[in-house]
């Protein structure tokens, strides 16, 4: 028998010994080679969420998982998908060449980034041979070529579209062979545990589907008609309309599907389509995001001005957009405050993070190179123009992330003005629930103040330095000197003081009933009792109350001490208490009532 190919290599022509003539079509995605054998000669196109397989069938990836595009002897092609501007539309994110038996993975990523396992490769237009794979990069895409004994493959990837062209008789499997087999070729290795979750979002009212369909149908018109005999336009039209009727035509999508078809034509026929760019108003391809490195929650796209920027993926941005925020809540700890803004959220609004600063222009944000979160902060040693104010029951430290008109010259500005206020505060101590047990000792209360916390501790001591706590088990003698230490931890001692507003004794736990004797009133020791003193503890945010032990006449020997404390700014006149002393008056059991209901500390003394 004599075997040959027909004129367009679509069929095998056989002439047997009896001169009988037969023609056997090779079928979709196959060509006849010179030896009369039908081999794979086709292109699989993965663009955005759509897959046009070797047979021209179209499917769409609806989730954010990884898939096997093609599996053949010696090579696996894998792909990962992620959302961009919408949670319900996924885009091709990365292509991975896995060489069998060698432990080699070559990752073709965003921005023209190529990695050998986890090492970044430096590529240019001159091909480099890496583990048998020929790699090169130009201004628009990365190309990888690999040749085995019975087939060859070339992969073109521009960050959004991968075109896989295969020649040879190899037995193939994967999404490019049967695009309807999504569940069978899904990979767990490069997929998150929640990757199969699918989302729905409201239709984008700005999209004119009729107009987009007309644009996609340009593939059915000249000059694309010259390639119809090589590449069926229908799958490409279907892919085009399915995306552009749902997803905004930014980030180069307006011309992407036309470009993909023209490239497929070139791969199949060595024929270059002419004139289509001017008809469709499309510029020559150029990966504007090349060498742009975005974080895991970002993608490279066009900002409001059409320039390439790292923008937020919809899933990441949704938690901020629902509350109109540009970043995370304020973090307050250890007399410091910080807030982190997402650079991609700023980019969406046309804001360059590098022009932002606090009230003090020298205090700028620090970007995390991995997450691209920009953090602004201040502390007690570097206040950055922080404004301190008193409001109701709080002392507030506030600052502002801002731009100003001086960042640009001339009468106009194209940079959005920013004013993001953030603050931390100390709240006045609410100590109604805090009390010493009968046996005395030390008590501490954690004050939860918005985000800033501090502790208030009080202890009864036998000496001024408070090195010896009182041993209540041995009893307390009348006229014995008592030292009650009031200390705080976690306050800004340079600016804030904890002031003892009042301390008084009663014969019951109710601080407002029964017999009462004042030790401290209006921030001053009782001028009629010379044994009472308030002494600063030398640490800036506390004091020591000194008094001599007493008891109420005609009552049992148990007394209760109550104190009301208040935070104040040291610069405030009310914090600089001036007290006048008068002569000593004999202690009395006559109750001295006040019309107030303060927050208080209760100390019970007695057996």
Automatic annotation (TrEMBL):
InterPro entries: VWF/SSPO/ZAN-like_Cys-rich_dom (IPR014853), ZP-C (IPR055355), ZP-C_dom (IPR042235), ZP-N (IPR055356), ZP_dom (IPR001507). Residues 331-582 form the ZP domain. Keywords: Disulfide bond, Signal. It comes from the Eukaryota. This is Alpha-tectorin-like.
């Amino acid at each position: 028998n004599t075997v040959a190919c027909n004129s367009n290599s679509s069929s095998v022509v056989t002439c047997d010994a009896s001169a009988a003539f037969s023609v056997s079509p090779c079928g979709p995605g196959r060509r006849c080679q010179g030896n009369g054998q039908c081999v794979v000669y086709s292109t699989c196109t993965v663009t955005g969420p759509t897959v046009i397989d070797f047979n021209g069938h179209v499917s769409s990836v609806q989730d954010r998982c990884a898939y096997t595009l093609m599996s053949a002897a010696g090579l696996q092609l894998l792909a990962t998908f992620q959302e961009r501007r919408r949670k319900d539309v996924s885009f091709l994110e990365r292509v991975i060449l896995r060489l069998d038996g060698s432990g080699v993975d070559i990752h073709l990523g965003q921005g023209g980034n190529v990695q050998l396992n986890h090492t970044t490769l430096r590529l240019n237009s001159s091909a480099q041979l890496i583990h048998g794979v020929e790699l090169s990069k130009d201004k628009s895409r990365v190309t990888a070529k690999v040749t085995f004994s019975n087939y060859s493959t070339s992969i073109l990837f521009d960050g959004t579209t991968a075109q896989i062209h295969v020649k040879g008789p190899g037995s193939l499997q994967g999404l490019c062979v049967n695009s309807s087999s999504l569940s069978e070729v899904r990979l767990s290795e490069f997929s998150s545990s929640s990757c199969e979750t699918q989302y729905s979002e409201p239709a984008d009212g700005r999209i004119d589907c009729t107009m987009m369909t007309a644009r996609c149908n340009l593939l059915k018109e000249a000059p694309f008609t010259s390639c119809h005999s090589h590449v069926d336009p229908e799958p490409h039209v279907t892919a085009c309309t399915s995306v552009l009727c749902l997803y905004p035509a930014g980030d180069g999508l307006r011309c992407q599907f036309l470009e993909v078809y023209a490239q497929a034509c070139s791969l199949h026929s060595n024929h270059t389509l002419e004139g289509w760019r001017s008809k469709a108003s499309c510029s020559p391809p150029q990966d504007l995001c090349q060498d742009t490195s975005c974080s895991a929650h970002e993608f490279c796209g066009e900002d409001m001005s059409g320039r390439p920027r790292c923008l937020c993926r919809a899933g990441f941005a949704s938690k901020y957009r629902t509350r109109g925020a540009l970043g995370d809540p304020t973090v307050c700890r250890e007399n410091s405050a910080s807030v982190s803004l997402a650079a991609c959220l700023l980019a969406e609004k046309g804001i360059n993070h590098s022009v932002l600063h606090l009230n003090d222009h020298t205090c700028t944000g620090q970007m995390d190179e991995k997450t691209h979160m920009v953090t602004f902060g201040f502390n007690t040693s570097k206040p950055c123009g922080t404004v301190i104010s008193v409001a109701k029951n709080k002392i507030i430290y506030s600052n502002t992330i801002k731009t100003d008109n001086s960042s640009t010259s001339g009468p106009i500005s194209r940079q959005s003005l920013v004013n993001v206020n953030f603050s931390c505060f100390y709240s006045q101590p609410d100590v109604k629930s805090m009390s010493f047990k009968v046996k005395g000792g030390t008590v501490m209360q954690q004050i939860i103040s918005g985000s800033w916390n501090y502790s208030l501790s009080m202890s009864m001591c036998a000496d001024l330095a408070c090195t010896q706590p009182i041993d209540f088990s041995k009893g307390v003698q009348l006229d014995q000197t008592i030292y009650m230490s009031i200390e705080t931890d976690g306050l800004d001692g340079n600016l804030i003081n904890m002031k003892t507003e009042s301390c008084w004794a009663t014969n019951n736990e109710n601080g407002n009933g029964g017999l009462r004797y004042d030790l401290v009133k209006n921030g001053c020791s009782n001028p009629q009792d010379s044994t009472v003193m308030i002494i600063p503890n030398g640490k800036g945010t506390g004091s020591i109350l000194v008094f001599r032990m007493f008891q109420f006449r005609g009552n049992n020997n148990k007394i209760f001490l109550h104190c009301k404390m208040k935070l104040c700014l040291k610069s405030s006149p009310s914090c600089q208490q001036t007290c006048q002393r008068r002569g000593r008056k004999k202690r009395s059991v006559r109750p001295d009532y006040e019309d107030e209901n303060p927050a208080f500390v209760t100390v019970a003394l007695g057996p």
